[in-house]
Amino acid sequence: MLGFEQTQLTLAAMGASGSWAWNIGENSLDVDERFAALYGLDAGEALTGLPAEAFFKAIHPADRARIKIAVAGMMAGAELFSKEFRIVTPGGTTLWMHGRGQCELDDYDQPRRFIGLLVDVTERKRAEERLRIAQTAGGVGTFEFVDGHATAAVSAEFCRLLGLHPASVLPVQTINAVLAPGAQPILPDARSSHVPETLDAEFEIIRNDDGQRRWIARRGEILPEGSGYRLIGVIYDVTKSRAMESALRDLNETLEERVHQEVVERQQTEEALRQAQKLEAIGQLTGGVAHDFNNLLMAISSSLALLSKRLPDDPSLTRLIDNALQGAERGAALTQRMLAFARRQDLSPEQIAVPELLAGMRELAQRTLGPSWPLDFRWSEDLPAVLADPNQLEMALINLLVNARDAVPRGGPISIHADLTTVEAGELTDLAPGRYVRISVIDRGSGMDAETLARATEPFFTTKGVGKGTGLGLSMIHGLARQLEGTFTLQSAIGQGTSATLWLPESRHATPSPGAAPAQPSPPVARHNLNILAVDDDSLILMNTAAFLEDLGHCVWEAASGADALQIIRATPDLDLLITDHAMPNMTGVQLAEQAVSERPGLPVILATGYGEVPTDSMLRVVKLGKPFSQAELEDAINRAMSE
């Protein structure tokens, strides 16, 4: 195929009105000077490297969408682009162009360049229009006007179209009087020395007889007449066609707007996906850190517990060890919250005394928000219990508090109120009648307008900047409330703050008392020394677990891997119990337990894990023991395993 420069010379010889080369990979346009003149590009402007959208710049709005579709089809595989369309020149003249072109392909048969030319076919289109008018059965009025005259010869149909009384000759002033304000004259005034360039025009009139607004098209010829000129032409009603063009133009604009909207929505969806992936990555990282931290706490707390049994009865030493153990317990509580955030915990609904939950999270919540946002907790001590997962509920409330803080960036009080209310049938959407505990987080921040409020719980919707919010927090809270057979509501107004409320149904079971004793451990099994295999790839944890077990009077075998453990199991027929870590290389604790039980049916198994969740969908029955665990918790797990 010819290069672009050779193509330009060839097209010039053919009388083409302009040519272009669209570099598809770069999405840029090279044009010649004739194309630039038609499109109103500055003569001094570079004619290479133009944005590809410049190709559509001068195309008539009614034709633009059609040509865009044709170009897209050609680039997608059509062999040839060949279309007629209108362009509007910088001077406002409408010209008809025949565009022809095709794609150059690269070595992989993919479009590389789209080269083509424009040919002016305006005269042909006008001749076709005159022929069409001449063949029209009716509805066409004729006129003849001579330069310098104040009147024009017209037909009866001409008069009817303008709503004028029938006459063979009419004053030009009378003819032009039917024009709508701002419209160009139908015929030039006798005093005007301006000769029209073309008779092709459309103008709006207000019919003289009935006042109807109509659109009239004028077509004709300009002929020499002595030292002046003569106008011979026709007029006809184009109101319907203009309405159709207007509708098509509106449709094109709507389509372009819709395409733009879909592009924006796709970008938003991609950004939301990136945020969700980022959240998942953070969750995995948090879960991994919590797991490793639990292992460290296990080594520390078990060592301290064993040390406390071997030290002399010295109050000062006992106090120091107790302080260290309390610090380890606080660290363990922190890892539980990290695991809840990472969704690496078993979510088990239980009876929750809301006052105890709120009191327990007060210190954490205040540290999370900072001193500039003082918290005001208010509740009734006789609130009934609710059935929920405490870690989930606590994380939901922390999330709401963080949102409230962000709504008051300069600081200010934030309230958490809990009360009991009765909901009647139909009073609240999607909420069954009954008694509900309401927990509200209230701020006096910027608030939300009605549109934002309506979308606030939609997944991925956020008013925060890019990277500052996933848009998942409120939707997750709403989902939590619905899972618990309650609901989540928001009340807000610009400048009046926001109230976010969780509605949780009153539990059917008895309310736990504020000072309720902890659950009793499993009853001890008959006292005798057990043969126990302890497995953990962390040598510190393995050593301390074995020390715990030996201190309880059991006989212990130790293994640092699943493979070593299987060898011991096969060599020790009188083994009573297997205690294994889960996250080990090569063979996980679950895989080890499944293999051990298949070889030794009925062997009790305790699965110790630094993750909060049961990391398996296996049907294998195990007793789960979360790290870090105390000697008492280990003993209770042994009792449960042996009892089951």
Automatic annotation (TrEMBL):
Gene3D superfamilies xref list: 1.10.287.130, 2.10.70.100, 3.40.50.2300, Histidine kinase-like ATPase, C-terminal domain (3.30.565.10), PAS domain (3.30.450.20)
All residue ranges annotated as the Response regulatory domain in the record: 531-642
Q: Which residues get modified to 4-aspartylphosphate?
A: 581
Has keyword Transcription regulation? no
Which Pfam families is this protein grouped with? Answer: HATPase_c, HisKA, PAS_3, Response_reg
The question of whether Phosphoprotein is a record keyword is answered with: yes
Where does the PAC domain lie? Answer: 81-133, 199-250
**Highest taxon listed in the record's lineage:** Bacteria
Question: E.C. number, please?
Answer: 2.7.13.3
Catalytic reaction list: ATP + protein L-histidine = ADP + protein N-phospho-L-histidine
Q: Which residues cross the membrane?
A: none
- Keyword annotations: Phosphoprotein
Name the InterPro entries for this protein: CheY-like_superfamily (IPR011006), HATPase_C_sf (IPR036890), HATPase_dom (IPR003594), His_kinase_dom (IPR005467), HisK_dim/P_dom (IPR003661), HisK_dim/P_sf (IPR036097), PAC (IPR001610), PAS (IPR000014)
PROSITE patterns to which the protein is assigned, alphabetical: HIS_KIN, PAC, RESPONSE_REGULATORY
Which residues does the UniProt record annotate as the domain Histidine kinase?
A: 288-508
Q: Which PANTHER family match?
A: SENSOR HISTIDINE KINASE (PTHR43065), TWO-COMPONENT SENSOR PPRA (PTHR43065:SF42)
This one is known as histidine kinase
